[in-house]
Amino acid sequence: PDPRMESLPEAVLIRILASIPAVDLVLACRLVCCQWKNLVDGAALWILKCQQEGLTGTESEENAENWQNFYFLSKKRRNLIKNPCGEEDLQHWGDVHNGGDGWKIEELPGDFGKEFPSEGVHKYFVTSYEWCRKSQVIDLRAEGYWEELMDTTQPKVVVKDWYAGRSDAGCLYELYVKLLSENEDVLAEYKTETIAIPQDNDANWTEISHTFSNYGPGVRFVCFEHGGQDTLFWKGWYGVRVTNSSVTVEP
Question: By residue range, what is the domain housing residue 159?
Answer without folding.
Answer: 94-250
